[in-house]
Amino acid sequence: MTITAVPSITNGRLVVRGKIILTGIPDNVVITPGKAGSAFLGATSENAASRHVFGLGVLEDYQFLCLFIAKIWWMIPRVGKSGREIPMETQMLLLEAREDSALVDEDSFDAPDENKFYILLLPVLDGSFRASLQGTASNELQLCVESGDPSVRTSQALEAVFLNAGDNPFELIKDSIKLLAKHKGTFHHIENKKTPAHLDWFGWCTWDAFYTKVDPDGILEGLKSFSEAGCSPKFLIIDDGWQETANEFQKEGQPFVEGTQFATRLVDIKENSKFKSYGPDGSETNLRDFIGTVKKRCGLKYVYMWHALAGYWGGLLPSSETLKEHNPKIEYPVQSPGNLGNLRDIAMDSLEKYGVGTIDPEKIYDFYNDLHSYLANSGVDGVKVDVQNVIATLGSGHGGRVAITRKYLGALDESIDKNFRDNNLICCMCHNSDSIYSSKKSATARASEDFMPNEPAFQTLHIATVSFNSLLLGEIVVPDWDMFHSNHTTAEFHGAARAIGGCAVYVSDKPGKHDIKILKKLVLPDGSVLRARYAGRPTRDCLFVDPVMDGKSLLKIWNLNKLTGVLGIFNCQGAGSWPLKEAVHDLPIKHSQDSLISSHARPSDVEFLDEIVGKNWNGDSAVYAFNSGNLSIVPKNKRFQVSLDVLKCEIFTISPVRVFNETLEFAPLGLIDMYNSGGAIEDIMWISKDLSGTLKIRVRGCGRFGAYSSTKPSCCKMDIEEEKFWYNHENGLLIIDLQGGCNLRDLEIEY
After folding, report:
1. How far apart are CA 385 and CA 348, in angstroms?
2. Whether the Cβ atoms of residue 58 and residue 22 lie closer than 8 Å to each other
3. What is the pLDDT of residues 90-133, one digit of tens each?
4. Are 704 and 734 in contact (CB under 8 A)?
5. Dihedral of alpha carbons 105, 107, 109, 113, sign
6. CATH architecture of the domain formed by 197-446
7. 588 preceded by cis ω (within 30°)?
8. How far apart, in whole angstroms, are the C-alpha atoms of residue 160 and residue 129?
9. Could you read off the pLDDT of 706-733 as tens digits, one per residue?
10. Looking at the chain, which residues constitute the CATH 3.20.20 domain(s)?
């Protein structure tokens, strides 16, 4: 729960639940009480300016996790113990405190959770200003507020940092986002949004398969190869490469100029020549015809098209005849000192040089509506809108970065609502808080930088990043953990993560390059996936450790299904290094005894298990290991050991043992040949019959259904038809062979 004791500043110290969090607080720092024990930190200045950096006080000896914008498009996590380790552009700061002492040492990580509480600081949007946090070499925590427009100035930011505390870090973040959403009124919590239907179906994105060379023949070849492999996608993203664009800075016959590709501009809202063809009789085949063909021939339910928030990377071409009604003008991005102080990005550096063809924010809706209505009339079901954070660098003359972001995103939401069913929008490259706290309708967004199949050192960073970023993003959108390749050295690693991430499951395989064994662990025969209920997040004991570079920690990610929990454990050590942090491991990856890392897990690593059980739980859980097939009964807080090599993982289904008829102990596991087996179970009930009874389980899918049962059943039936089953008297593992379709059905187990 979230604690309601109000934070206060006394004698230059910030005190939260009796703990001194910051010391040496300057007199210009102010605190304003909020709802439910929360507060806002802010500061005042004698002078008005478009950018301020305020000292908030000294932060020392607190274990922290922060999420910060490392590159202008993307957040990554960082852990540490003092203010000097907090990077520029920090957008979330979570502190761990202890009731007995604020000081945390290396030997205290196994202290009982009840001795801990958590303090959350969220730099937010304050009027026209966007806030972020950063540390100094003297451990001072600083607040940066900026408008992004020299003419938009202020001398105070009173609601720049939201402050709250609680005993459960996940409840704390959720409650805080809900309080903020209600107070600010500029964004909504994910529970108040409509989620796109594509999330529950297997998909294919064309990007890594073709990059910008995508064309209809390649798409048809790819869909055919999936079908022949036995796993057909139900949603398709036609990524960058379908639009009519022009690069003014690359002259024909001249050597390629690196960077100009990002200044390429949109010429027309309609498809390029690759998606048009002409018959001998002069008849034209266009995007509408192609979409109709692939849906009918390949059984696709949803087709999404890619475009950038500004139309294309370099915006719209001002000289385009077909776009002149939108009156695009070249404007030049200005990056904030925070962006420039972290990682530079070639795309932004290029756009600063060549400019972006922008549309007046007051008229951007007309462009989106023209584009989306054309796509919708062509049979397209939704869009992936990329390169979003660039808009925040174009705020000068438009009221600042917050104002222009809200105009663009509001117009985008309005157009999506008008032209597409089911809020079919995927946002991308949108991690700045201008976008996060302006997200009123968009319900899914990419959680990290791209999956990069040719970058071995990025694979572990990807999994760690999406899980940590989901702590914040998962309260506002359904985080999209990106595509991956099923036929790749890290396919099992990525596939298992997607299965427990609560995210869309889609790949970017090249035609004919599929690993059907991996795909069948993710996708049911009808193309649906067993998606977990929430965003996958690191377990409580992983929040303040570095699973990529500390050389000793495994990454544990938890999630819930309707009746079971799921716990994924990943060895992300020794295969990559965080940017902006000194590497401590040599590359390339080395697999040896030295790379084997051991850690502990327990059923209670899955939060809120008791909420899915009800009253008939005895506190034990059936723990089923996907790879080894081992089943054991483990008390809620009892630890078990897990050892993994680099880039290896194990998925544990955690199913609370329910007691029926006073003597029968039972725990459903689900489809045990799927990574997230418990996602197949919808409901369970006991029907008594004198001294016997029947368990009725609502289940979807086919294959091997597993459960722990303390007693061997007399028979098992699916929709009245008797099914084969096997029972292991030693460990109580019951396996039933479910035949038939993937629709919801009733499995009856008689005792």
Report:
1. 17
2. yes
3. 999 999 998 754 444 444 444 446 689 999 999 999 999 999 99
4. no
5. negative
6. Alpha-Beta Barrel (3.20)
7. yes
8. 8
9. 999 999 999 999 988 899 999 999 999 9
10. 197-446
